[in-house]
């Protein structure tokens, strides 16, 4: 069930496109590890920002363009351990669909390379640039780029997983369950499964938020854009044969609303799922040690089972 693309981007079109122009820096985009650390360290004094130092033997290929709209390039970074026909994990960053950077998942990506996985981090169009479903299309374009260029970088086009956190977890799940056979496994870290659940609506459709992060992405409140809120909910696409999903959650249930209901629907259809809940953790826990390592360990165990 591929997600409908508005503007398919072909490799030839990218090559013939004009030079890239980077969008201007947005000073309000502060969803990154240093700013999040400053907010959390008082309540969690033992946390440390996870290292993004590239380990010996891991090759980084940066700023590869995977899609282009006019002069606007969307780019990714690829991290590869030694080996050939490597399984690949494509990471979708968080930030409420309106903020964030692909650097968010570099620490987790690097730890996965130590277990034999290649990893991709990429940028996508945020809500201030393009509303839903643009970001979903970007995720699937990044996956298609990996499949198309797999032979160039020693990757296995038939072993691709999508992973993400917060908004990125919701995007990974939505893009993954609607991507046909392109995605073999999904890791949803503290991302919504159902925008229309009472728990999600209490926060994302809160009238005091004008607009909420979701409302800005959809271009309206639930009552105004009900069809979009439903269509963006991964739970709407549960079907036999879909990729298995690992759900990893913080101690903040609102961010993973709909998880248990989606797992129940998957189980009824014989689709595998698993979960790891880290009690007492804040949202964005995956940016920090000591919480990143159990996240990586559970992810590796899941991928070894479902992305062998």
Provide an overview of this structure.
The chain is α/β, with parallel strands linked by helices. It has a single domain, classed as Rossmann fold (3-Layer(aba) Sandwich), CATH 3.40.50. Helix content is 30%, strand content 20%. It is built from ten helices and ten strands. The strands form two sheets. It has an eight-stranded mixed beta sheet with strand order 2-3-5-4-6-7-8-9, sandwiched between helices. Helix 9 links the parallel strand 8 and strand 9. Helix 3 packs across helix 10 and helix 4 crosses helix 5. The radius of gyration is 18 Å and the shape is globular. It starts with 10 loop residues before the first helix and ends with a helix.
Average pLDDT works out at 94
Strand order of the main beta sheet, please?
Answer: 2-3-5-4-6-7-8-9
Question: Approximately how much beta-strand content do the residues carry?
Answer: 15-25%
- Topology as a string of helices (H) and strands (E): HHEEEEHEHEHEHHHEHEEH
Question: Which overall shape is indicated by the principal axes computed on the Cα atoms?
Answer: globular
CATH topology: Rossmann fold
List the helices and strands and how they pair.
Blueprint: H1 11-16, H2 33-40, E1 48-49, E2 59-69, E3 72-80, E4 86-92, H3 106-113, E5 118-122, H4 134-148, E6 155-165, H5 167-177, E7 185-189, H6 198-204, H7 213-218, H8 226-231, E8 245-249, H9 259-268, E9 273-277, E10 288-289, H10 292-306
Parallel strand pairs: 4-5, 4-6, 6-7, 7-8, 8-9
Antiparallel strand pairs: 1-10, 2-3, 3-5
Helix pairs in contact: 3-10, 4-5
